[in-house]
Amino acid sequence: MLSERFTQALIYATQLHANQVRKGSGVPYVAHLLGVASIALEYGANEDEAIAALLHDAVEDQGGAATREEIRRRFGDNVAAIVDGCTDADTTPKPPWRERKEAYIAHVLSASSSVLLVSAADKLHNAQSILKDYRILGESLWQRFQGGKAGTLWYYRALVNAFYQTGSSPICAELERVVSELERVVAKDDR
User: Fold this and answer.
1) In this structure, what CATH number is given to the domain that contains residue 109?
2) Confidence class of residue 62 from pLDDT cuts 50, 70 and 90?
3) What is the pTM of this model?
4) Which of 167, 95, 96, 88 minimizes the C-alpha distance to 123?
5) Which residues are known to be catalytic?
């Protein structure tokens, strides 16, 4: 069961990301956070992992080290460590896109099981959103991504491979299924 801590994390995440929307879609960012938490819970997350799922982008997008310390103060070392493990970059300016993504993929290979679960839930929700938006927008979708079409497809396939190197799991299989479907749909349209 989820306790008041989860409720407090949801309120905090909603406040942190109140003025943020998903790239290109205008959907309130909290929808992504709820999606990631839902996926994580469906794949067996405990409360700390579910809280970290709600807060997984907070350090990266909403305040860096100060936000990390506030998460630690409010929700404990374990949640803060999971959030840290899911953080792509917490410096301003961020390193170049490809460098950040390669570092994240390398990090996945040695991540804790909690970080792997929350990260895979995040990447699965992102991949589902990309696939849905691609079906609506077609090629214009790729303009919203720094890596463009080739870079984005490379990144998600590399993530699938990295997650599988850490061991197979149902969430890895679902991520593989969605990424393969995305690749199939894009390749079909490229013909």
Assistant:
1) 1.10.3210.10
2) confident
3) 0.94
4) 88
5) 60-61
